[in-house]
Amino acid sequence: MKAIVGVIAAIIIGGIVMMFATHMNNVPKLDESVKASWAQVQNQYQRRADLIPNLVATVKGYASHEKEVLTQVTEARAKVGQMTITPEVLNNPAAFKAFEQAQGELSSALSRLMMVSERYPDLKADKNFMALQSQLEGTENRISVARRDYIDTVKQYNLELRTVPGRWVASFLYPDATVKETFSAEPQSQKAPTVSF
Description:
This protein is mostly helical and about 200 residues long. It has 7 helices and no strands. The radius of gyration is 24 Å and the shape is elongated. The termini are far apart.
């Protein structure tokens, strides 16, 4: 009888040890994936920030009558450029929201700039503008993909911290691990844009 109890105890203990062993490195691996995904989002934001001065300079030559839109783009880019993004931003909801809002303002200003190009055929026909517009549109798509990937890696990380056995492993081995913030749409982006001709 003692032998059977010993075997059962050994199986239970072995199962617990195996469960912990298989999840032991998940938290740091997933945390690094979140950091890498965030770095890719920042990389795409930097690419956009590098393109904007060229785009604005090109557009200024052809659309001096739309100075207000160009000023908004320049100001929005400057605001984004002034923000210092650190890994702590991912754990600070207020800082993360401020970063998202600044990026949203820049996206909005760029959308208005694209509308300018549609209103002025001479501007739209310029090869330099067309090339830069194409690059900018591609960058916006890349940002969207990078955000999607970031959201997915945050989801995996947060699930690991909030479900068993990952929750137990994290509380035992990584007590400083916390749930990460993810992107959320600005309230005004929920409304369909108005298009008038």
